[in-house]
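Technical note accompanying the year-one report. For the benefit of new consortium partners, we illustrate the data format agreed upon in the data management plan: each record pairs a sequence with a structure-token string. No post-processing was applied to the example shown here.
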Amino acid sequence: MSRTFGSMLLASTLFLAGCGGGNGLFEGEPELENFTARQIFERGEYEIENRAPDDAAFYFSEVERLYPYSDYAKRALIMQAYAYHLDKDYENSRSASQRFIDFYPTDDDAAYAQYLLALSYYDQIDEVGRDQGLTFQALQSLRGVIENYPDSEYARSSILKFDLAFDHLAAKEMEVGRYYLKRDNFAAAANRFRVVVEDFQTTTHTPEALHRLVEAYLSLGLVNEAQTAGAILGHNFQSTEWYEDSYRLLTGQGLEPKARGTGWLNSIYRQTVRGKWL
């Protein structure tokens, strides 16, 4: 082993083994310019393994800054996005992911960058009562993975997360609708439940939305609409508790679940009978 190579190996070993504050740098550590792109990249990997994603992101960003035209710069950019995401720094994770997509749209890791971008929104979706803007952003970004990278390993996970995020939006409409229903604001409640039936009919909230429409329309004296909602519920979700509750409500007033009138629910009923759910 040559003295020069031995000195470089020793410096690299000390660099990787260093610890302390301030972006993972320790007092007396040589300037990063003295290290190769590979050495700095490996230091970033070291920080990831030692659960210091904020330090890792710093080193990966330094690879990009010091060696912008190297192969390691491209690898460091996607790792930077990953490290930021681990650190829950979602804004910077999005920024790094988007840069990777812009710079390397045909790269094998572009699908992962798009997936990280989607996760930066999806992982912030909180309880139902919060603003749903992030949920819409997550849906758009997840759709980007599904449509642009359908054969990637991230497409299936994106489909599952898309369905969950879609269900989350329906849950928000249901929460608001129940709020109005409890306060006897039946028209406003019915409007919210209608949104679920028309726009989120593939979610788990549809049976309850139909039952709540029965409740709201009966309270408004809109008998035809209430009966039609009950008929749709019976046709598609007869085995659910929601149908049982609606059936009791209707029969208790001498009514039956049956399509009546010419309103929006009647159109949906005709489509469900033909097996063509909206």
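Partners are asked to follow this layout when depositing records. Residues 164 and 203 are 9 Å apart (CA to CA).
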